[in-house]
Amino acid sequence: MKVTIHQPDLLPYSGFWFKMATSDAFILSVHDQFQKHGYQRRVTMRDAWCSHQLVGKPALVPINTVEVAEGWQQRITDVIRGRYAGAPYFSTRGVELVERIRACEGHLLHEVNRAMIDVVREMLGIDTPLLVTDPPEEAAAERLVEQVLMVGGSAYLAGPGARAYMGDDPEVRFREAGLELYWSDHQPTTGDSIVTVLMDEADPMSVVLRTA
User: Has residue 36 been placed in a domain?
Assistant: First the structure.
């Protein structure tokens, strides 16, 4: 079973969805440390930031302890309407996306982002199971190995930026744990949120599944 892992980001770019669509299980890493300027709380839409308003000033805490200010549904959908109203597929997918986000619930950051991930996942037709493990104890590549083993995986699909935090020789570390390590070869058309793909592309999944 090929497993991939990613933090529960805010309406993330197409590479997130490529990993989900090409794996057998997708772990939402809600126990990772919150990053003030990370993609858990913000994403670009039309090359400008769309950000969550948070409660307080969280720092050095797990993602699943961070709170989002009330009214987040309206704030996110106002940005989507403002930036994509003239897009080719706003009258169909855009209207659906806005309506479904407005119906989402949650007040913790991981709950809020998971709710929107579920919406987009259904709109894209991806049926890969989403999982949350117990809090891992290790770091770097060992942290990923630990989580893959928790769900009974036999292989891990890593994103292109993973080498920056996986340490030296991650292939060796995975092999020693009895796991295969694969690297994503996704070729994004935009670094923007998946919303841009949904609004601009006739076949969003062909963009999600594009490889180099």
Answer: yes
